[in-house]
Amino acid sequence: MIELSKESFEKYVPAFRDAEGRIFEAVLPYMQQYLDKATNVIKIPENYAGDALVEAYVYRQAAWQALPHLDLVLTDNGFAVVSNGNLAPASRDRVAALQERLREEKADARDILLMDLCRNTAWRETEACRRLRSSLLWCPMLLRRYGVTTADGHQVLEWEYNALLPQVLAAGVEAARIVSAEQMQWLLEHQDEWDEAQGPDLRSVLRKKCRRFMAAYISDRKPAVRTLAAQLQDFLNRHADDLPEYAASSKFQADNFKPYENKKDDACFFFG
After folding, report:
1. What's the distance, Cα to Cα, between the start and end of the chain in Å?
2. Which pLDDT score is estimated for 193?
3. Most C-beta atoms within 10 A of its C-beta, which of 22, 32, 153, 176?
């Protein structure tokens, strides 16, 4: 795991460069808190090679968390901690703008770290991973990638994602009704953002189509929902032979049920 240092902290949070080191010392307890979270909650494996991603997560989360508790002044070299009564604190607007920028950066740092961890075989088997990826749109970055915004048009970060979570889960239920519970379960267990760039693998294409449908559902774009649902079903119909999870599903069996047809030489006829 990483070692906390002033040099690394200021690399990832350049707004807090401070020659005297007061900001680093003030934020240090928050850094330790998020480093502990990385170890004990996210459960980053010992063999994980993404130290830079862990650093970005720890330092940016800590800076955002600590900011409301810091008495900052704006100097020619950036922000600094007020050390005497002759310096006026930085304006509320400046601090608010910095806080929003840190909120964006720490949200991205979290999502990028978790996406990279998904490539780690040991981490993919953890309960933390299974809980996290209970949806095909399991993080704010994915919602933004598929065009989802808040009702008033703002970008989706962690707070906004949590507020949208009921719609995210409902969208997953609707997608599963189309592709079948069995196929959706496979997609959830094998989703890996990185394989979407590896070529036209049918399941990767299906996963992307599901995500587009879900994004439209979350955004309440009804015409798009109907169009994407039809496209999704058409894709399944054309490729059922190459999607064994779907072909073996009860949904496929119901959609392709053929009633008994009477034949001329049958001993008796059935009427339905």
Report:
1. 69
2. 47
3. 176
